[in-house]
Amino acid sequence: MAAYPKLPADRIAVFGHSFGGGAALAIAAQTDRFKTYIAWAAPTDMFGKWGEFHPVSRVLPEEGSTMRFSQGGAEVGQYGLGGPPWALPGAYLEASRFLSADRISAPVLLITADRDFVPMSQSERMFSAVYRLGGRSRIVSYWGEEHILWSPANIRDLYDQVQDWLDETLSSDGLVSGTSTDDVPRPSPSPRTPQRP
User: Fold this and answer.
1) How far is residue 70's CA from residue 57's CA, in Å, rounded to a whole number?
2) CATH of the domain at 130
């Protein structure tokens, strides 16, 4: 904050995607410095992430390629936990943001998608934990989307969801977005199938 003294210290959010989403949740469990958090496609439970099927694995589990992706990512990849869960349970405990949910006091927005290689259950577990603990959280799930969003309607909705969350959790005397009654209206997503008479 010393480098940017004009930033409002009481209105700063942390937003992370994928590994960065897990990092955002780790920060949330370690400090109350930031007012709100957004975690998109965040791995939260490394025990589950290690062995849980991706959508493709559910169709062809004997192929095993996506399981190797999850297991390799946990053991020697981005997470670098050093081995499987039964060999190093302490490393998996420490890396599982889900298990530190009781230390999160700020609001958390979780964003997930059903075709993501980070399973929806990762965000669902964190949401359930924060909810059970009486914290403030929202989960937004996108259907037919992957690790990033492709549908223009869903991308617009994502921006709206994030802006609404920031307006709700950061503003004290007005909206963060600065919207007013004379703003141009934004279209809502339209159904893919026509309405029948």
Assistant:
1) 11
2) 3.40.50.1820
Please give the pLDDT value at position 193. Answer: 44
The number of domains in the chain is 1
Q: Which amino acid, residue 131?
A: Y
The answer to whether residue 177 is domain-embedded is no
Per-residue pLDDT, averaged over 45-53, amounts to: 89
CA–CA separation, 43 vs 118, rounded Å?
Answer: 6
If you compute the radius of gyration of the chain from its CA atoms, what whole number of angstroms results?
Answer: 19
Residue 107's domain comprises: 13-170
Q: Is 108 within a domain?
A: yes
**pLDDT tens-digit series, residues 94-105:** 999 999 999 999
pTM assigned to the model: 0.82
In the chain, what is the straight-line distance between the N-terminal and C-terminal CA atoms, in Å?
Answer: 58
Tell me, yes or no, whether 7 lies in a domain: no
Residue 183 lies in a domain: no
- C-alpha span between 3 and 15 (Å, rounded): 20
Which DSSP symbol is given to 116? -
Beta bridge partners of 37: 14, 108
Strands of the chain (E only): list them: 13-17, 36-40, 108-113, 137-142
What pLDDT score does 1 carry?
Answer: 64
The predicted pLDDT at position 183 comes to 52
DSSP 54: P
